[in-house]
Every structure is written in structure tokens, then in C-alpha cells.
Design goal:
Helix content of chain B: 25-40%
Number of helices of chain B: 10
Number of domains of chain B: 2
Number of domains of chain A: 1
CATH topology of the largest domain in chain B: Rossmann fold
Strand content of chain A: under 5%
Largest sheet of chain A: none
Strand order of the largest sheet of chain B: 6-7-8-3-9-10
CATH superfamily of the largest domain in chain B: P-loop containing nucleotide triphosphate hydrolases
Low-confidence stretches of chain B: none
CATH class of the largest domain in chain B: Alpha Beta
Distance between the termini of chain B: 41 Å
Order of helices and strands of chain B: EEEHEEEHHHEHEHEEHEHEEHEH
Structural class of chain A: mainly alpha
Structural class of chain B: alpha/beta
Oligomer: heterodimer
Order of helices and strands of chain A: HHHHHHHHHHHH
Helix content of chain A: over 70%
Number of strands of chain A: 0
Largest sheet of chain B: 6 strands, mixed
Number of helices of chain A: 12
Chain lengths: ~270, ~325
């Protein structure tokens, strides 16, 4: 397992030198900054607009990085055949998959941190320039540390999306991997509807199928607490811990499946 | 203990989408390569050379048969500490420099930072990559990537080196450098297994060769044994001979080809059916004098063409 960090560092090095990544991060930071201007257009809702847009920008650009770099991680190595030289070294295929995953997780961590820092800087500026009477009317302080809970859950969600993208990329083309990952992400945000579905159908088979899908598909909606933190509603620490554990368990299963498939693959 | 051993190594692929059927890429390959040998693995394009190398590197898995390197199964990750591999037309990470790539690969063998830097510098010197080592690899030409590929393969001071078409993409100077490198590896006691369809390289470097055609091994052995008895005629050079005498011999079928070297000096190519001493005696009666008599032997290329042409068609079985 000592080679996993080395592969991860190499992925990180490659990613940070890729212009696509820079563009995405710069665009996200710009969007967070622009949210300040948008906030000026609304009366009394400016801080909520900035928080809403800022968290949405972190989630959306994080998703784009996770999917579009995640699907290319393994595919590019196989397509360009750089994997031939690498797998001839004393490394296991499982170490290769885990190293690739950890590298992208590290890249995501740095990017989410940069975006969060930009987000808090805009909020701090907002809090500094407003009058104390206006600040008192806000449901939560400008730089409310509770928002970090939303950021942590966004990050865990992105880690899971990356794992799913990596899983699909071990056996399919980038286009198919991206479609399947994004499709699963969308379905995962409506997962709770499947739970409701079994209460409105008469067929026991359909109800059983809906329940099965509810448990099998990732529940991405569980990671979304953006509205609560924006409106200053408390998010229990226990909820955050349980959701992180759920994400970690799901991620473990997805990575195990990716390793199993990748370990049996022929590189023609 | 052999450096490399394969027993009935076979690889089938499935081809066709609507009517899938197995395609035999490699058919029951059995061969051994001794330690310290430079072994040429020859064959035309599509013969199964790269398939064999990929099987030995576990990049693909065999349908049947087994393979060992230094007495250990090829699936044993530990054996790769003693093995090196240069793939055909190697490609690496666009945004890494040559130096970074070598240090990264050296790190996978567990060398510390100082050792990694030293090895990278030494190997890049050895393959002739100078100041370019600090450029990102996406700016490298095909020939330079090939040199970096060879350097990365040797980063662990291997005992067995697999090179897939090592001369591919290299200019004449590069080819000479790589030939010298292979000879240096041999002198160090390293086993070199290289695939090629450039026969002059094999002839210059190898002690033993195997010829693969259509997925099957069609010949293998010491180069000297394969070519030693393949005499296909004689070259007779005579002096003081008349054009009329040469024409008469040609008409009788004793001479296949006559080349005039000087006013009364000829080089005559005799078929195997002509006894050179009888023809020489006949020509000597008209005053001809012997200059030289040499057997005309096959080159590796002649031998190769004959073996490949005689190889049976590849099996493409219909799924039943």
C-alpha cells in the first residue's frame, strides 16, 4: 500500500497542471465574487443570495471536476497506454485504482478549500461593510461556521461521485461514464421519492422493486443541507456524522467493485 | 533456472459483435530463455509478439497455459522488482517532465528521494536526454519518448528486460545507441527479450531467436544453428575466363547468374545442384584460375520470410 500515496501525488500533480482544472476553479471563484453583486440587486435578501449562490457554486463546480476529471483518470491511462509501463512496476491493480482515487480526492479537497475560502472572504466583506442593525436582522451571522457542515457534506458527496465516476470508467468509455455518473447523481437527488413510491402502488413487486432501488442507489439528497444553513436552521452534528458514515460505506462498496472489475480487465 | 519460461501459453479474443467468435492471438506458445541471453522475438506485424509480452507483464490474462519469470509465476507482483518493460510506442504523462517521470517510477520501487534523483539523472544521461529532461513530456518527439521509455524501464536495475520494438521511432544514431545499450545490459548479465520485425537488429544482437507467425511459434533456436546449414548455392570468383565459357556454363544451367568484375574476371552464382569443383575443372581446362569459392548462406531475412510464408493460417473458430 506504500505506492498508493505516490500514485495519488502524481495524479494531483497532473491535475493541477491541467488548464481545465484552473479554468473551473477560477470560474467558480469568480461566480462566488459575482454573487456579491447579485446580492445588491435584492432588498434585504442579499446575504442569503450570496450564501445560496456560493454553496451552489462549490457543489456544482466540484461536481464538474469530480465527473470530468474522475472519468478520465483511468480511461486516459488505458487509452494512451501509459498504464502499460505503470502496471509493469511492482504495484497491484487495486493499488493503482486506490491511488488514482486518492489523487483526485486530494485535488478535490484543495479545490473545495479554495472555493470555500473565497466564499468566506466574500461573506466576511459583506459582514464588515453592513450596519450592525442590518446584521442583527440576518437569520445567521455572515461567516456562520455552521455553513462548514454543508461544505463538509458537499465534499463527501463529491468524493462519492468521484468513486462512482471511477467505477464506471474502469469498464466504459468517457461519454458513457459521464452519462451514467450524472444520471445516477440526478436519480440520487430524488431517491427519497422512491421511498414514497411504494406507498402509492398496489403491486407488491413494484413496491419491493422501489424499496430495493431506494437502498441500492446512492441517496445524494441526504448530503444537501444548503437550505438549512442558509436560513440559519441548525444541522445536528449527529446527522452530519451519520451521513458521512453512509457516504464512506457506499464509497467503500463502489471502490471495491471498481477494483474487482479493474483487476480482471485485459488491456488489449 | 530459466529467465523466462512459457508452457502452452494461449490467448483467445472474442471478435464480432453479432456473431462473436474466438480469435486466436497466441496459440500454445512454449519457449524458454536462459539467464544472460539476448533473445530476439521475431515476427511480422500481428504475429502475436505484443500479445506475448502483455501476457508476460500480466496486462492481459491467458486463456490457457502458464508463464514464469525467474522461476516465479508472472502474476507474482514481487517478481516485477527484478523485471523491466518497454511497451511499443510508449506514452507517458503529458504534464510531467522526464526527470519527474523517472523519479516517480523509481519511487514505486521504494527508493528514497536521493536515490530516485540519482537514478533518474544517470539513466537520462545514459539514453542521451540532456537539458530536455526538464521539459514536460508532451513536448517530446516520438524518438525522445522512446529514449525516456527505455530509461524508465531500467530504473530498478532489472535482471530481465522486455523490450517491445525498442528501435521503433529512432533515427540511425538512436538505433546505434540502443543497440549498444542492449549489449551493455548483456555484459552486465541481464537477460534481454526483445520483439522486433527489424531483422538486422536481431542478427546483430541476439544469441537465440524465436519466430512467431499467425500466433504460432514456427522456429526457434540459436541463430548460428538456424542459419548454418541453410546453404543455397555457391559464389565462385574466377580469373582469366572467357565470356564464351561463362555463356556455355549458363546455358547448361551450371550457373544461375554471372557478373563481370573485370576484363576477364567473373563472379558466378552456382545453384546447389552444380558441383563447384566440376565446373571449376571445366573452366580450368580453358585456362581459368580460381580466385575464391564461398557458400551462399541464407540471411535471417531469407529464413524469416520462408518460415512466415510456410506458417499455417490463424485459427478463427466459429462459436459453437
Amino acid at each position: 500500500m506504500t505506492v498508493v500515496p505516490q500514485i495519488a501525488v502524481n495524479v494531483f500533480k497532473e491535475s493541477v497542471r491541467d488548464k481545465i482544472l484552473y479554468n473551473l476553479v477560477v470560474f467558480a471563484v469568480l461566480l462566488i465574487a459575482v454573487s456579491y453583486l447579485l446580492g445588491q440587486l435584492t432588498a434585504g435578501q442579499d446575504i442569503k443570495i450570496i450564501k445560496d449562490l456560493g454553496l451552489a457554486a462549490i457543489a456544482t463546480f466540484g461536481l464538474l471536476i469530480a465527473v470530468f476529471i474522475g472519468i478520465g483518470l483511468v480511461w486516459k491511462e488505458v487509452e494512451r497506454k501509459s498504464i502499460y509501463s505503470l502496471l509493469a512496476k511492482p504495484i497491484r491493480r487495486s493499488e493503482f485504482v486506490l491511488g488514482k482515487y486518492c489523487g483526485l480526492a486530494l485535488t478535490l479537497f484543495v479545490n473545495v478549500s479554495v472555493m470555500t475560502l473565497a466564499f468566506y472572504l466574500v461573506l466576511a466583506y459583506m459582514g464588515w461593510r453592513e450596519l450592525p442593525t442590518v446584521r442583527a436582522a440576518w437569520p445567521a451571522p455572515a461567516t456562520d461556521p455552521e455553513m462548514l457542515k454543508a461544505v463538509v457534506l458537499i465534499f463527501v458527496e463529491l468524493l462519492l461521485v468521484t468513486g462512482i465516476a471511477l467505477f464506471f470508467s474502469t469498464f466504459s468509455s468517457p461519454f458513457l461514464s459521464a452519462s451514467l455518473t450524472l444520471g445516477l447523481w440526478v436519480i440520487g437527488h430524488f431517491n427519497s421519492d422512491l421511498r414514497q413510491f411504494e406507498t402509492v402502488v398496489n403491486s407488491p413487486v413494484a413496491a419491493w422493486l422501489a424499496r430495493g432501488l431506494y437502498y441500492a442507489l446512492p441517496n445524494f439528497a441526504a448530503f444537501d443541507v444548503k437550505s438549512q444553513v442558509v436560513y440559519g436552521q441548525p444541522v445536528a452534528a449527529q446527522y452530519v456524522v451519520l451521513t458521512v458514515l453512509y457516504g464512506a460505506t457506499y464509497l467503500g462498496l463502489v471502490l471495491a467493485a471498481a477494483v474487482t472489475i479493474f483487476s480482471r480487465r485485459d488491456f488489449k | 533456472m530459466d529467465a523466462i519460461r512459457t508452457d502452452g501459453l494461449t490467448k483467445h479474443y472474442t471478435v464480432g459483435f453479432w456473431r462473436p467468435r474466438p480469435y486466436v492471438a497466441l496459440d500454445a506458445l512454449s519457449l524458454t530463455v536462459g539467464q544472460g541471453e539476448v533473445f530476439g522475438f521475431l515476427g511480422p506485424n500481428g504475429a502475436g509478439k505484443t500479445t506475448t509480452l502483455k501476457l508476460l507483464m500480466q496486462l492481459i490474462f491467458p486463456t490457457a497455459g502458464r508463464a514464469e519469470i525467474l522461476g516465479r509465476p508472472v502474476g507474482d507482483v514481487a517478481i516485477r522488482r527484478r523485471v523491466a518493460y518497454l511497451p511499443e510506442n510508449p506514452y507517458f504523462y503529458d504534464y510531467l517532465t522526464a526527470e519527474e517521470l523517472l523519479e516517480y517510477f523509481a519511487g514505486l520501487f521504494g527508493f528514497d528521494a536521493h536515490e530516485r534523483r540519482q537514478r533518474a539523472a544517470r539513466l537520462l544521461d545514459e539514453v542521451g536526454i540532456g537539458a530536455e529532461r526538464r521539459l514536460q513530456l508532451r513536448k517530446f518527439s516520438k524518438g525522445m519518448l522512446q529514449r525516456v521509455g527505455i530509461a524508465q524501464a531500467l530504473v530498478n536495475d532489472p535482471d530481465v528486460v522486455f523490450l517491445d520494438e525498442p528501435m521503433s521511432g529512432l533515427d540511425p544514431l538512436g538505433r546505434r545507441d540502443i543497440r549498444q545499450l542492449i549489449l551493455r545490459l548483456r555484459d552486465r548479465g541481464c537477460t534481454v527479450f526483445f520483439s522486433s520485425h527489424v531483422l538486422s537488429d536481431a542478427e546483430a544482437l541476439c544469441s537465440r531467436v524465436a519466430i512467431l507467425a499467425r500466433g504460432r511459434l514456427v522456429a526457434s533456436g540459436l541463430l548460428s544453428d538456424l542459419l548454418a546449414f541453410q546453404v543455397r548455392g555457391w559464389e565462385l570468383v574466377v580469373h582469366n575466363v572467357t565470356a564464351a565459357a561463362v555463356e556455355a556454363a549458363t546455358r547448361r544451367g551450371d550457373v544461375v547468374q554471372a557478373i563481370q568484375l573485370g576484363a576477364d574476371r567473373y563472379s558466378l552464382e552456382l545453384p546447389l545442384t552444380t558441383a563447384p569443383e566440376s565446373l571449376l575443372a571445366a573452366l580450368a581446362r580453358d585456362g581459368a584460375q580460381l580466385v575464391s569459392l564461398n557458400p551462399i548462406r541464407d540471411t535471417l531475412e531469407d529464413y524469416f520470410v520462408r518460415q512466415v510464408a510456410a506458417a499455417p493460417e490463424r485459427q478463427v473458430r466459429t462459436a459453437s
